[in-house]
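Researcher: Dear colleague, please comment on this protein.
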Amino acid sequence: MINALWIGATGMNAQELNINVISNNLANTSTTGFKKSRAEFQDLIYSNLKAAGAPLAQGTLNPIGLEAGHGVKSVATQKVFSQGDIVNTDNPLDLVIEGDGFFQVLMPDGSFGYTRNGEFRKDRDGVLVTASGYRLQPEITIPPEATNITIGSDGQISATINGTTQQLGQQILIARFPNAQGLFSKGNNIYKETEASGAPIGPGVPGLENRGEILSNYLESSNVKAVEEIVKMIIAQRAYEMNSKSIQTSDQMLQVAGTLKR
């Protein structure tokens, strides 16, 4: 019965993390380019009280073992990089990656960050930056006299300058990772490379080498489905309650055992 107390506690701790992950997903329902997470769990080690196949009387073997588990543990929060809904904005500097890939930006410490949020704008020098002021890499500069800016699916940028439509000789590139789930979520819609993610492949031309294509005048919404997350929250809440009940039941059984007299 003492084990049941600790087993129930592991279940409550696991569901607490699960609720935290779900709550973060729901909080970012309207965050551009946000990718939802899911909590993953594993059962803990088992006490092998009687091994399967152990010899019994008269030369027979035990067909089924006897083992007792010790609860559950949290092992990972995996990012789900499914495509979010695409929303029209009529802003040529709003970009969506249709498929695999990330925009590469320069961080204040000189390192590179990666994002699915294509909500870019020009700074005072005409350089494309994120909402946090991080410069897109390779750096893209829009001339001040440029109008009617268009960005092709391959990242090529065109604009009207002095009444003539021409390519600016600049191209938006995107990077891929061998294991995108291994990226570190830094916040501000930024991911960072880790040993688990592997080094970035590229940045390279959109549409080539399994990279997604670029769609201008649109933004990618969060891939969180509110109804789905609420259902998950209800399940997690009920699991938390059941684990709490197992602790209460174990406590009541201990109380009964403590009142026994010879």
